[in-house]
Write a structure and sequence with these properties.
The protein has 324 residues and is α+β, with helices and mostly antiparallel strands. The chain folds into 2 domains: 95 residues, Phosphorylase Kinase, domain 1; 201 residues, Transferase(Phosphotransferase) domain 1 (Transferase(Phosphotransferase), domain 1), CATH 1.10.510. 44% of the residues lie in helices and 14% in strands. It has 10 helices and 9 strands. A 5-stranded antiparallel sheet has the order 1-2-3-5-4, with helices on one face. Strand 2 and strand 3 form a beta hairpin. Helix 5 runs parallel beside helix 10. The radius of gyration is 20 Å and the shape is globular. The chain starts with 10 loop residues before the first helix and ends in a 7-residue tail after the last helix. The model has no long low-confidence stretch (mean pLDDT 96).
């Protein structure tokens, strides 16, 4: 693993990369919040702006990135408010000095007010449209969100990483295995369909304007059950979450059918995300940006809290599913 994957990505390199595809910057760069990739708002000489995304080396193949771009453009062409990459020099993915990158139009907005039922219904309508397109055909290159990719593989990697404290390793392993058994059981007994998803549809990837929402950052687009793009928009106790899901589905089902049995997958998917998050931090730990941003990772207290969290999830998966 490259311990300094962006060491050569200087401000001059960013500007030179954009100039190589015909976008001349005026020297003003603003680094945007992104750990996985490096993303910059760039002011151009014509007083317009673009957002440049430099992809983390060795994370996605070229074919996988292009499949993400193709899905974004497919949605954009159907007038679904997704921020798609710009087509420049007849392509969306470019390379400069060893970095693969893409340019996007700048789109402003604020976080959506998810406590507002009308906002949730509006978001639900567009998610229904996204999934109606996503269900038409599968990804061929991008991975699926399943028990192996988000559960078993992270478990095995973390166990071999040397990052787990020796005195907690046995407890962590038994807790993870019990949680993954619960995930397996829920997936096996729940009828669901794998479709193309946004994949990381939380409030931070939705920007709100007076014209409504638009969706950004399909970098984690993958195959998975439809409910994956819904559950991360829920908050609060089960009664509050059920009301929020009802508003989302009131909009969603205007454009795409939703299998209500997939509500049984919310807690299993939450369990997988929690385990995968530890794996993600561990895999990126040699990148200097990560210890600076997540200083608490890897401590004794961190792993103790994860054990408690997974025990709570094992219990949650045994409870009746959310109703909406």
């Amino acid at each position: 693993m490259d311990s300094k994957p962006y060491e050569g990505l200087t401000p001059d390199a960013v500007l030179d990369a954009l100039e190589s595809i015909g976008l001349r910057g005026d020297g003003r760069l603003l680094a945007l919040n992104s750990y996985e990739n490096r993303v910059y708002q760039v002011s151009l000489e014509d007083n317009s702006y673009v957002v440049a995304k430099f992809y983390r080396p060795n994370r996605w193949s070229e074919a996988q990135i292009l499949e993400d771009h193709a899905f974004s453009l497919e949605l954009f062409e159907r007038e679904i408010p997704v921020v798609a990459p710009l087509v420049l020099k007849n392509k969306t993915l470019h390379e400069f000095s060893g970095f693969r990158f893409a340019a996007f139009p700048r789109r402003g907005g604020r976080p959506p007010e998810l406590e507002d039922g009308k906002v949730l219904e509006w978001i639900g309508r567009f998610l229904g449209r996204i999934h109606a397109v996503g269900a038409t055909r599968p990804f061929k290159e991008r991975p699926a969100l399943d028990v192996d990719t988000f559960g078993n593989d992270p478990r095995d990697w973390l166990l071999e990483s040397g990052l787990l404290p020796e005195d907690l390793k046995e407890t962590w392993v038994s807790t993870v295995d019990l949680a993954l058994d619960g995930v397996d059981t829920c997936f096996e007994r729940t009828e669901h369909r794998m479709i193309r998803l946004h994949g990381d549809c939380h409030a931070g990837n939705i920007l709100w304007t007076p014209e409504g929402p638009h969706f950004v950052d399909l970098d984690d687009a993958r195959m998975g059950p439809a409910v994956q793009d819904l559950w991360m928009l829920l908050a609060g106790d089960s009664e509050t979450a059920a009301k929020q899901m009802k508003f989302l589905l009131d909009g969603y089902e205007q454009f795409h059918a939703f299998r209500r049995e997939e509500l049984s997958l919310i807690e299993p998917l939450r369990t997988l995300r929690l385990l995968h998050y530890s794996y993600w931090l561990a895999r990126r730990w040699e990148d200097p940006a990560f210890p600076a941003a997540f200083p608490w990772f890897g401590t004794q207290r961190y792993w103790q809290d994860r054990i408690l969290e997974l025990r709570e999830q094992t219990s949650a998966m045994e409870e009746p599913p959310l109703s909406a």
